[in-house]
Amino acid sequence: MRADRLLSLLMILQTQGRRTAQELAAELEVSERTIHRDIEALSIAGVPVYATRGPGGGCDLLNSYRTSLTGLNEDEVRALFMVSIPAPLAQLGVSQKLKNALLKITTEMSAAPQYLEQWVHQRIHVDVVPWFQPEEPVPHLGTLHQAVSQDRRLQLTYQLHFDARAKWVVDPYGLVTKAGIWYLVCSREGKIRVYRVSKVLAAKALDDHFDRPEGFELAECWKAWCSDVEDSRPRYSVKTRVSVELLPHLRSYFGVSFDDLYKQTDSQEGWITANLHFETLEAARNRLLGYGRAIEVLEPEALRLSIIDFASQVRDLYSD
Q: What is the per-residue DSSP string for 97-157?
């Protein structure tokens, strides 16, 4: 998000000229302290930006400096408009701002940017919301977004299990949306935490600010957290005897192709022996019962007996 903010800051100074840190902070919805840090970052990157104090002072660029945003051809402009506004960003309330920004950027690049936008959107649509997933209410997303943008501490009331609640003060580092669900990445008691935004019962941005850790990268932090979650999931291994005719159907559930699964197995004529993985015994039983006689459980014995018991109950029910 900081890269976007630096670009926005640069464009404001280029198009509007000298602005005070207070004005820039209000327009970009951050603190004046953040503006001064961004000005310093632009200067270190070689952008001739400077700040003057006192009456009539402010932040400005050297008159001779201009960024080069021209030179895009029509295909590149069309590609730019393929970046449609996904539903999660609309929840943040920035969809119209993004649309306006795209039009402003392309005004000097093409004689008809609105025509190109319409042309693209009639041919390409990106839907990031998963099937059959109801939209989660996130009434406090705006407050979280404001605190994240301004590096302000948050006081949260969070829904725990069994209707329990907790109240914490956290340093909000960023917001992440995954499969249509919002998460808050923050620091509490010196440790990185991730909270589901829909479980935030109350949120209040505090007056005091925090300093983000040097070198913190939201994408890398999220990737590491997701990896830890996946590694910590329960793993229930099942040795099975599988009909080769079923292998194409297993791909949709286990995410492996026929060749990948076949390499992990010892084949017999018309059958293979494969090790499949589930979260729990119950999850394995419920899934494997649906495949009927196309999969036989060899190990563990507890799962084999459980499937026999359930199959017997079903047979007895329908035999009546």
A: HHHHHHHHHHHTT-S-HHHHHHHHHTT-----SPTT-PPPP-TTHHHHHHHHHHTEEEEEE
* pTM higher than 0.85: no
Measured between alpha carbons, how far is residue 295 from residues 63, 123, 271, 304, 318 in Å? 74, 44, 9, 11, 22
- Is there a contact between 241 and 270 (Cβ–Cβ < 8 Å)? no
Per-domain boundaries in the chain = 2-61, 74-121, 141-232, 236-319
User: What's the rounded Cα separation, in Å, for the pair 183 and 35?
Assistant: 26
Q: DSSP characters for 38-97?
A: HHHHHHHTT--EEEE-STT-EEEE-TT---------HHHHHHHHTS---HHHHHTT-HHH
The string over 182-209, giving b where at least 16 C-beta atoms fall within 10 Å of a residue's C-beta and e elsewhere, is bbbbbbeeeebbebebbebeebebeeeb
pLDDT per residue of the chain (320 residues) written in tens, 0 to 9? 466 677 778 777 877 778 888 888 888 888 888 888 888 888 887 788 878 877 777 888 876 565 554 445 666 666 666 665 666 767 777 666 666 666 666 555 544 555 666 766 677 777 777 777 777 899 999 999 999 999 999 999 999 988 899 999 999 999 999 888 899 999 999 999 999 999 999 999 999 999 999 889 999 999 999 999 888 888 899 999 888 888 777 766 666 555 565 555 555 678 888 888 888 999 999 999 989 999 999 999 999 999 999 999 999 999 87
Assign domain 141-232 to a CATH class. mainly beta
- What class does CATH assign to 2-61? mainly alpha
